[in-house]
Amino acid sequence: MTRLVLVLGDQLTDTLSALKAADKLTDVVVMAEVAEEATYVQHHPKKIAFIFAAMRKFAARLREDGWDVRYTQLDDTENAGSIPAELLRRAEDTGASEVIAAQPGEWRLIEALEDMPLKLTMRPDTRFVSTQEEFDAWAKGRKALRMEYFYRDMRRKTGLLMDGDDPEGGKWNYDSENRKPAPDDIAFSGPMQFTPDDTVEEVLDLVEARFGNSFGTLRPFWFATDQGQARRALAHFITYALPRFGDFQDAMMNDNRFLYHALISPYLNVGLLDPMEVCKAAEEAYKDGHAPLNAVEGFIRQIIGWREYVRGIYFREGPDYPRRNALNHQRKLPEFFWTGETEMNCLSKAITQTAEEAYAHHIQRLMVTGNFALLAGINPHEVHEWYLRVYIDAFEWVEAPNTIGMSQFADGGIIASKPYVSSGAYINRMSDYCKSCRYKVNDKTGEDACPFNLLYWHFLDRHADRFSGNNRMSQIYANWKRMEEDRKQTILSEAEAFLDGLS
Ligand code: FAD
Ligand code: DLZ
Ligand code: SF4
């Protein structure tokens, strides 16, 4: 009896558990470009183009491999508009009554599949280092779910950078060596870029016609869209950027959008690269003496540490996680998040880059846009939707814990032991943004004061009940307490005036 094998736009992997459980001779693969997935948030056009192009190429690859693939393009007249509706249509065509799927990366879609009037076999998504059972067992009974301890277990499990039972070099974590400020120039020309082939061009035309008015520019489009290209992009990063990845991991520059970052998150997240393949390539570079330990450990930690950890949190916490708002922040997202038109240079640069590239690196996301949204008290759900829309690598399982948890403290401290907030001083230390800003980063009050300086104290003051008892924040609160009352009032009233101006 024919069964339907669902392959979603972020499940483009030969070894997908759904494909492994199916029979090439009798089962039918279903892939569909559907309006519901393309519009549940108004994605960046580059993200839609990337996914559709990669889906079309993967479907061709499956066909070459002997699979019967029923592929629906967005403009097909029979397109039923959603994944469940497409499955029902294909079930009618083929007489199938059973669907095999690998677990989707979003509760919304898991629930939609479970509601279908077809028998569903949902297999775990095995494209990760850790299983959910492993993560839940690790988390059970712990007072605090700190990533660092989970990461050490993943190092032991994978054997990556291990010297017997001990971490390579004697330390688990070399983060303290990875905080160098922006250098004068960067000796890396950026990620490998690919000229669109016919498949990509066709998709770009479709996306331009259907989603051309969404936030963000579609062209130029240079992302890898198949496994071969993604592997070349990875090799390019390992050769030319990994050796300095660690040193400048947290730096930001006006005139360099990528620094030494890998830009492989879209490829990992849709399944064109495998996390262990990536980490082994990095480990190899260390063993060959090509890249230093601080760079390779830092890079591997992001993938087997943070990436796996946030996924574990997303599925452990449940479908309500993106709706959490522990700090009761209610302000609307300022309009400049959609235009980049603000005199705050750091925000203008990060947002303009996001519109043009569908990419910003971690510190831009966390300490510029995220920091501002948290300090200004923006509703975290609006912040979450913004991140889910604008980045090419954004899928809820990875985006929501980073935004709701790490960046906005809206989960009440499950991920972050203290809020990631800073004044302008941090941005000034790690970037050259402040040099060309209309505001003065050293001014704490007055017309030219950097808004981050004002909002920083405003945030701490309005959340003193929650955070003043936090050991890691006691020094900051002591400084605030010591400040003269007049000065405090000036800071708070100037911050209020700035916030009023936002709406
Ligand atoms: P590199 O800096 O070169 O790092 C290498 C790889 O490590 C990345 O490709 C990524 O797979 C992994 N990684 C690094 N940090 C994280 C992290 N915190 N969580 C998970 N994986 C990580 N990442 C996404 O993949 N999708 C998202 O939607 C996403 N949303 C984010 C939202 C916020 C508010 C913040 C603060 C971070 C978010 N991140 C997200 C994490 C991180 O910013 C991106 O993974 C990273 O910028 C991707 O670029 P890169 O490949 O150049 O990364
Ligand atoms: C993000 C996305 C988009 C834009 N379009 C599609 C699509 O048309 N068909 C599809 O199968 N998947 C798409 N995706 C990816 C899904 O939204 C993703 O599988 C879920 O959000 C779960 O991670
Ligand atoms: Fe950003 Fe303030 Fe620096 Fe301007 S002065 S770039 S607003 S941190």
Q: Mind explaining what this structure looks like?
A:
- This protein is mainly alpha-helical and 503 residues long.
- The protein folds into 3 domains: 4-123, HUPs (Rossmann fold); 132-209 and 224-314, Alpha Horseshoe (Serine Threonine Protein Phosphatase 5, Tetratricopeptide repeat), CATH 1.25.40; 336-502, DNA Cyclobutane Dipyrimidine Photolyase, subunit A, domain 3 (Orthogonal Bundle), CATH 1.10.579.
- Helix content is 50%, strand content 5%.
- It is built from 23 helices and 7 strands.
- It has a 5-stranded parallel sheet with strand order 3-2-1-4-5, sandwiched between helices.
- The model has no long low-confidence stretch (mean pLDDT 97).
Strands, helices and their partners?
Elements: E1 4-6, H1 17-20, E2 28-32, H2 35-39, H3 45-64, E3 68-72, H4 83-94, E4 98-102, H5 107-114, E5 119-123, H6 132-139, H7 147-158, E6 162-163, E7 166-167, H8 198-211, H9 227-240, H10 242-245, H11 265-270, H12 275-287, H13 293-317, H14 336-339, H15 345-357, H16 362-376, H17 380-390, H18 396-407, H19 424-430, H20 451-462, H21 464-467, H22 474-482, H23 485-502
Helix pairs in contact: 3-8, 7-13, 9-12, 12-13, 13-18, 15-16, 16-20, 17-18, 20-23
Bound molecules: flavin-adenine dinucleotide, ligand DLZ and iron/sulfur cluster.
The site of ligand DLZ has 17 residues, from helix 2 and helix 3.
